[in-house]
Amino acid sequence: MRLVVVDVDDTLYLERDYVRSGFRAVGAVIGAEEYGDLCWELFLAGVRGDTFTRAAVEIGIEPTDEHVARCVAAYRGHAPAISLLPDASALLARLTGVAYLGVVTDGPAVSQRAKVLALGLERLVDRVVVTDELGPGRSKPHPAAFELLQKHAGANGRDCVYIADNPAKDFIAPAALGWRTVRVRRPDGLHAAVESGADVGQVVETLAAVCLDAA
After folding, report:
1. Using the 8-state DSSP alphabet, how is residue 194 labeled?
2. Are residues 145 and 66 part of one domain?
3. Final residue of a structural domain among 77, 95, 119
């Protein structure tokens, strides 16, 4: 084991905490705390994609393109109130000095970098790769981020492990490169209900249960 790479959202912290933090920031920006609360309620009800529009209609705000754009910018650009889960902190500490540690994360660069900063990942791992910064079409399942880290670590595929949560896209590229794969299926994760595919080598509910020797 020469390289261990981890995902961020729902792997190192709960993504729902970021969502809640973002909606609070949106409410503060538009000067209506109840608007942020309503966005959160809609999220818990399963609403995705048009949350800001639906919340605006319900609260009596005209859902113009300008309003939605302002909300999106506030959501993506806010300083998130999130922290590493205890099992994530323990895993990173356990691997420090043992293997080259990397992070691969999808999403808008401004949002993901804010998460990286809030979680203190730059000082905990050797390299953070935000796929949005690699150029168009380089997000997962594209292999670019994994190939980059494998090259930096000077590792063969069999000596690499990727730990993530979303079976729809996370494991396709690393598995194709011959990496070992571990899915953390947190009960509160946004993708917990999605079944694992053949490209998932090990499934755990907590990073404390990760067995890298047998991944």
Report:
1. S
2. no
3. 77
Cα–Cα distance measured from residue 182 to residue 120, given in angstroms and rounded to the nearest whole number: 23
The model's pLDDT over 83-102, given as tens digits with 9 standing for 90+, comes to 999 999 999 999 999 999 99
For the chain, helix (H) and strand (E) counts, in that order, are: 8, 6
The pTM of the full predicted model, rounded to 2 decimals, is 0.94
103-152 pLDDT, tens digit per residue, is 999 999 999 999 999 999 999 999 999 999 999 999 999 999 999 999 99
pLDDT digits (tens, 9 = 90+) for 147-183: 999 999 999 999 999 999 999 999 999 999 999 999 9
Residues 6+ apart with CB under 8 A from 104: 5, 6, 7, 129, 131, 140, 145, 146, 149, 162
For the chain, the domain total comes to 2
Q: What is the dihedral angle through the alpha carbons of 16, 126, 205, 83, rounded to the nearest 10 degrees?
A: -30
* Domain with 70 in it: 16-77
Q: Which conformational region is residue 135 in: left (phi greater than 0), alpha (psi within -120 to 50 degrees), or beta? A: left
Asked if 112 contacts 132 with a C-beta cutoff of 8 angstroms, the reply is yes
Domain check: are 102 and 208 in the same one?
Answer: yes
What's the CA gap between 153 and 139, in Å, rounded? 20
Distance in angstroms (rounded) separating the CA atoms of residues 114 and 63: 27
Q: What is the largest CA-CA distance in the chain?
A: 57
E strand segments, 62-148: 100-105, 127-130
**Using CA atoms, how far apart are residues 115 and 80, in angstroms rounded to an integer?**
7
